[in-house]
Amino acid sequence: MVILGIDPGLAIVGYGLINYDNVKMKLIDYGAILTPAGMKIPERLDIIYDSMTELIKKYKPDAIAFEELFFAKNVKTAIAVAQARGAAVTAAYKQTKELYEYTPLQIKQAMTGYGRADKNQIQQMVKLLLGLKEIPKPDDAADAVAVAMTHAQSLHFGQDFRM
């Protein structure tokens, strides 16, 4: 099963693809969709939508897992990132109905067993569990790989976090 993990953002949308065979996880690819800061929001959303569509058509994932957004303070940033996530979710939904979402807490617990793990601990677990020589870069891509791995674990334990 090919799982695409997405770490949504406006400037950077991280993505990570793994293959999961009900026993092992293997990294297929990872990277980031980038949008320039000086560009208008609709143009940035268009880049995200089109890039997501291309990515999904290229790899034909069986499932797509998104990290849920969490913002404590900056409402303006939250709205822009939510719009970007919406563009990514819409592109994904047009290709497959197998969409899932995980909270940051669920991802931290799945990757480290500890809900207050920091970003570096999660990234080290991505590296360790997949047998990689280095942590995927940028950080958003490593986070997206962790989202895909969290979905694989939820399948293993029979949990359903469908959108």
Describe what this molecule looks like in 3D.
The protein is built from five helices and five strands, in the order βββαβαβααα. It has 163 residues and is of the alpha/beta class. It has a five-stranded mixed β-sheet.
What can be said about this structure in brief?
This protein has 163 residues and is of the alpha/beta class.
- Rg result: 15 Å
What percent strand? Answer: 15-25%
What is the tally of helical segments? Answer: 5
- The total strand number stands at 5
Strand order of the largest sheet: 3-2-1-4-5
Overall shape: it is: globular
How do the SSEs run, as a string of H and E?
EEEHEHEHHH
Distance between the termini: 19 Å
Q: Provide the structure class.
A: alpha/beta
Which sheet architecture does the biggest sheet show?
5 strands, mixed
* Helix amount: 40-55%
Low-pLDDT regions: none
Mean pLDDT: 94
